[in-house]
């Protein structure tokens, strides 16, 4: 009896909140053209202030870590200039911690994309449990309060290879109707089936699912664990074909360096080509994963972990450095943060990375260096370089972006952003 009473109270409260949400936010805003959320239009994604939002960022398994609310790792991730972060969650864990995680992500100027991970590769009851997870007054109130910078990802990679187009369309249409009925006005993100890889199915049913949403605000997400032979074509489907169909699609996990089953393959998947294609066509991507929480896949190679212990600049491997900073298509060199994220409308530098080709030099040897400030659209990207340590061991040529070793000793090269005092330093060793 008490359980039924609580259930009826909970459902009544959800309904009351939903009514308030729909009354104050949805119909009026969408009828007048006033936006209060991120929205999709013609295959593009835009902020409430009508700025293009090309997602660049990461995934992180906060929920199973000792940093569930992102106090340590979100500031580190923010140094990349990422504008979005996908927040892995398990519906068995406290919802108030997820709320704090969402708000911490937004505080660090990243769009928060909470997702329910329990339906990975599953369908039926598992997917329905993820849908039902969002039917909660705590989550509804928090997500709608933060609706300007939040996207709701219903479930991670639900469905295996056996999910038909008809089943996918019917199941997610019902999920969309439920979420809107409960009062959610934020964009809804839907992952592809086949553990996120079935991009072709998203292309086939995406337009119908977009029409099934009364707010026409659905983002589709595929995960790039494709075979090497299929990868390039699939990246082009995300970047080009989806937009031709008028649907917004991103790579929600990737571009991928490898896939389970070929972790020891010395030749990585064409992730750099994927990054290039996506940037050229202004399509979003979120790499899996930041690395604070250790992945269980590819343990011996760590290709699914970018950083050691979630620390910016401490890369596990060359692909991690390329994905975050070194590639011209990396997060640091392509991510743009919306100006409307900032109270004064001025995007500020969030991170500095200084890369020196050779930190161990012999006298007479020359090494090139590169200074990267993120995000790429920061208002003031001026910086200052300084040399410290043993005097006269290094000659700095800022015009050519080169260092020349003059005599044995130790030195430190530092780059400091002028508007924020954020810095990065590299130690240099010179020998005969």
Going across the major beta sheet, what is the strand order? 5-4-3-10
CATH topology of the largest domain: the name is TIM Barrel
Name the CATH class of the largest domain: Alpha Beta
Q: What's the CATH H-level homologous superfamily of the largest domain?
A: Glycosidases
Order of helices and strands: HHEEEHEHEHHEHEHEHEHEHHEEEEEEEE
Number of domains: 2
By DSSP (H or I, 4+ residues per run), the number of helices equals 12
| Unreliable runs | 1-32
Mean pLDDT reading: 93
Give a written overview of the molecule:
The chain is an alpha/beta fold and 432 residues long. It has two domains: 17-341, TIM Barrel (Alpha-Beta Barrel); 351-431, Immunoglobulin-like (Sandwich). The chain is built from twelve helices and 18 strands. It has helices spanning 2-24, 26-32, 73-78, 95-107, 125-133, 137-145, 165-182, 199-212, 228-244, 271-280, 318-326, 331-334; strands at residues 39-41, 44-46, 56-60, 84-89, 111-116, 152-153, 188-191, 218-223, 248-253, 285-287, 351-356, 360-362, 366-374, 383-389, 394-397, 402-405, 409-417, 423-431. The strands form five sheets. The chain has a four-stranded parallel β-sheet with strand order 5-4-3-10. Strands 6-7-8-9 form a four-stranded parallel β-sheet, with helices on one face. The longest helix is centred in the N-terminal third of the chain and has 23 residues, at 2-24. The N and C termini lie far apart (84 Å).
Secondary-structure map:
Elements: H1 2-24, H2 26-32, E1 39-41, E2 44-46, E3 56-60, H3 73-78, E4 84-89, H4 95-107, E5 111-116, H5 125-133, H6 137-145, E6 152-153, H7 165-182, E7 188-191, H8 199-212, E8 218-223, H9 228-244, E9 248-253, H10 271-280, E10 285-287, H11 318-326, H12 331-334, E11 351-356, E12 360-362, E13 366-374, E14 383-389, E15 394-397, E16 402-405, E17 409-417, E18 423-431
Parallel strand pairs: 3-4, 3-10, 4-5, 6-7, 7-8, 8-9, 12-18
Antiparallel strand pairs: 1-2, 11-13, 13-16, 14-17, 15-16, 17-18
Helix pairs in contact: 1-2, 1-6, 4-6, 7-8, 9-10
